[in-house]
Amino acid sequence: MLKSLFQEQLSVEMATTVTVASVEKAPSLTKEVLQARKTLQGLRIRWEADLCQVLRETKANEAHAAREGRPSLFPYLCLLSEGEFAGLLLQTLQALPPQGESLLSLAQQLGLRIFNRHVVQRKQLGDEVRALERRYFEYLRLLASDSRVVVSRLPRQHWEALGAPEVPHEQPWPLPVVVQLGKQLAEVLVQTVKMPGRLAERQDSCKLIPVLYHVYSFRSFRQIGILKPHPAFMQLLATAAERTMTFEAAEVPMLCPPLPWTSPHSGAFLLSPTKLMRSMEGTTQHQRLLEACPPTQLHGALDALTQLGNCAWRVNGRVLDLVLKLFTEKGCPRLGVPAPPSEAPRPPQSRLPRGASPEHKAELRRELARCLKVAREMHSLRTDALYRLSLAQHLRHRVFWLPHNMDFRGRTYPCPPHFNHLGSDLARSLLEFAQGRPLGPHGLDWLKVHLVNLTGLKKRESLQARLAFADEVMKDILDSADRPLMGRKWWMEADEPWQALACCMEIAQAVRAGDPATHVSHFPVHQDGSCNGLQHYAALGRDSVGAASVNLVPSDLPQDVYSGVATQVEVFRRQDAERGVQVAQVLEGFISRKVVKQTVMTVVYGVTRYGGRLQIEKRLRELSDFPQEFVWEASHYLVRQVFNSLQEMFSGTRAIQHWLAESARLIARTGSAVEWVTPLGIPVIQPYHQDAKVLINGGIQSLTFSNSGDTSQKGLTFVSVHDCFWTHAADVPVMNQVCREQFVRLHSQPILHDLSRFLVERFCSGPRVKKVRVARLLDMLLSVPKTGAFNLEQVKHSTYFFS
């Protein structure tokens, strides 16, 4: 069966695109709809012919420029046929939103899509596809026989054992080439694609008007060039109501297991090029670091990504049907189902009334701008949901896989962007494991605990109390499963309503089975880290007080660090209020877990006091009874007290943060980019460096953009969303045990001292080092913060470490 799935996936990638039926409600086939579709079909036939002609002329002009020794894109225009270029341009036109898209962004997308198509075609021309097929089929045979061999091997080891040499990979094109090629093709599209004026004017006229307009707009206080479709064209599309959409092959989940990652440029999709490490287009630092690594150093990261990609998924059809019911009606923003454009607020009259006062005119303009902003946001949310739900419907009877790669820090992400388990509550509820597992003796209990976690109602209660609560509300759980839209709708009040509903349905099936232990469950159960960033800092510093605050120490009840910080801030506030500090007196009764949570959560990721103040200001503005004239002063005061509280509660953590920040600052002052190697062996370079400005002149707009230049096995199903780990209900105890053991194993290494040695060797030695600048850096790097007395072994017995 997997062989036939491989052939299907291969066909998809050789075609480079996937056409998917839209889940938007199909219109009645009225005379108007049929006429609009006929008009569109005729226009596209003419546009394709016109584009091919103009592309031939463009290629001839570029060839002439090349013969004269002038810079030319001629070699790149020869990579695809005129018909393929024309098809790609028409696909781009079809996908443009009503508000248009920046020319720079569009040019970059076009250039990258041409590169991807070129790579796929090059692989087809040689013997590469046949060699891949032979190797993949042998790989499947080895995987299938793995349980019968004496020594178990990882997928990467299976692949490498086949011994076939890797084909040299295609080097990415420089970003200026990508943008210039895409810009030239976008200009061809603008200049060539026209439609009869009568579509816009509703009167007889043979005059042709452009379908695309180049306009300038302000986005985030910057003027940028936009390619915007004519409203008449958008109306024609809306009337025709064609219910299909086209995705790039690499934007869609795979129909067979991904290739194992074996190197920085080999893994994931069968033919479509995929980066092991995501980075800004144009940067090569990360790729060079990865390629310079000894192959064995990356095996841990490569194997982890392969393992995540090898999890087979399927669509939860029961939940999808309910979401589609709401989506095709009027949406339900409260439940995360975006409303259609028809529900957008109507702007006031477009013409200002005569004799209106300047104040009234200004108010009308503000209201118009607000309505347009809301309409744009609603369109964006609706389109995002449309892509996700259409792909879910497309795959609802299939098994599929999500190949993974990572960002520069080593955080893992699924490659397909529109439909995966990293999305919102609604997105996660649509997915379940393709492979089922019997619940076993404790699986039903873990489903119940998971459901209560999703409600957010018992965060500070024990697991036993959560289990008891689930039994108390079992009637509501079963009612939610049986009558989700017509019953008591208990699930709708949960923090994560769609995942809660999916869990209610799973529990209903299990309790109604003759023996719940034998019920085969496909449902993913999650275990979340308890402020995981602070957990790592507390372990690094062996900080006993901090460790207790973030559940590294066994306890009868889960500790809540956010409430702990809020309590400490309240102590400081009360002291200041007694001393007569006005803002402390104003804040009485307003300091809560919610006010401080975001700042506490992000402080481990380097949030500044300025950023923290903005976060707290936003929370205070949400409090209707807080005196708004004190928001600015109160947010300044509170961010200071939050940082003071963290210093009090996590002294070891703050010392390590200070050491890391000062080390990075002093390294940057030497003119170098900060880099390090993670305990898993991943080389990291901080991609915050000065950008070089690149100017591409000519055409409908000169483009200036930044080119980021370089400076000198237990056998269980497992996936993750950063610090949230998923597995079958029956396997939660095994995953919990492994998670704790690996955390202890990780922090039993001398991580800070290893880092210190690496940084000293990298930045404080060698002939190019300037001794004056480096002396202070060397002192800082050698001053590794002292650690506390916390015993890491306690983590193995902490129930609420991940829960």
Automatic annotation (TrEMBL):
<feature type="domain" description="DNA-directed RNA polymerase N-terminal">
    <location>
        <begin position="7"/>
        <end position="310"/>
    </location>
</feature>
<keyword id="KW-0496">Mitochondrion</keyword>
<dbReference type="GO" id="GO:0006390">
    <property type="term" value="P:mitochondrial transcription"/>
</dbReference>
<dbReference type="GO" id="GO:0034245">
    <property type="term" value="C:mitochondrial DNA-directed RNA polymerase complex"/>
</dbReference>
<dbReference type="Pfam" id="PF00940">
    <property type="entry name" value="RNA_pol"/>
</dbReference>
<dbReference type="GO" id="GO:0001018">
    <property type="term" value="F:mitochondrial promoter sequence-specific DNA binding"/>
</dbReference>
<keyword id="KW-0548">Nucleotidyltransferase</keyword>
<keyword id="KW-0809">Transit peptide</keyword>
<dbReference type="InterPro" id="IPR029262">
    <property type="entry name" value="RPOL_N"/>
</dbReference>
<keyword id="KW-0240">DNA-directed RNA polymerase</keyword>
<dbReference type="Pfam" id="PF14700">
    <property type="entry name" value="RPOL_N"/>
</dbReference>
<keyword id="KW-0808">Transferase</keyword>
<dbReference type="GO" id="GO:0003899">
    <property type="term" value="F:DNA-directed RNA polymerase activity"/>
</dbReference>
<dbReference type="InterPro" id="IPR046950">
    <property type="entry name" value="DNA-dir_Rpol_C_phage-type"/>
</dbReference>
<protein>
    <recommendedName>
        <fullName>DNA-directed RNA polymerase</fullName>
        <ecNumber>2.7.7.6</ecNumber>
    </recommendedName>
</protein>
<comment type="function">
    <text>DNA-dependent RNA polymerase catalyzes the transcription of DNA into RNA using the four ribonucleoside triphosphates as substrates.</text>
</comment>
<dbReference type="InterPro" id="IPR002092">
    <property type="entry name" value="DNA-dir_Rpol_phage-type"/>
</dbReference>
<comment type="subunit">
    <text>Homodimer. Component of the mitochondrial transcription initiation complex, composed at least of TFB2M, TFAM and POLRMT. In this complex TFAM recruits POLRMT to the promoter whereas TFB2M induces structural changes in POLRMT to enable promoter opening and trapping of the DNA non-template strand. Upon metabolic stress, forms a complex composed of FOXO3, SIRT3 and mitochondrial RNA polymerase POLRMT; the complex is recruited to mtDNA in a SIRT3-dependent manner. Also forms a complex composed of FOXO3, SIRT3, TFAM and POLRMT.</text>
</comment>
<comment type="similarity">
    <text>Belongs to the phage and mitochondrial RNA polymerase family.</text>
</comment>
<feature type="compositionally biased region" description="Pro residues">
    <location>
        <begin position="338"/>
        <end position="350"/>
    </location>
</feature>
<dbReference type="InterPro" id="IPR043502">
    <property type="entry name" value="DNA/RNA_pol_sf"/>
</dbReference>
<dbReference type="InterPro" id="IPR037159">
    <property type="entry name" value="RNA_POL_N_sf"/>
</dbReference>
<keyword id="KW-0804">Transcription</keyword>
<feature type="region of interest" description="Disordered">
    <location>
        <begin position="335"/>
        <end position="362"/>
    </location>
</feature>
<comment type="function">
    <text>DNA-dependent RNA polymerase catalyzes the transcription of mitochondrial DNA into RNA using the four ribonucleoside triphosphates as substrates. Component of the mitochondrial transcription initiation complex, composed at least of TFB2M, TFAM and POLRMT that is required for basal transcription of mitochondrial DNA. In this complex, TFAM recruits POLRMT to a specific promoter whereas TFB2M induces structural changes in POLRMT to enable promoter opening and trapping of the DNA non-template strand. Has DNA primase activity.</text>
</comment>
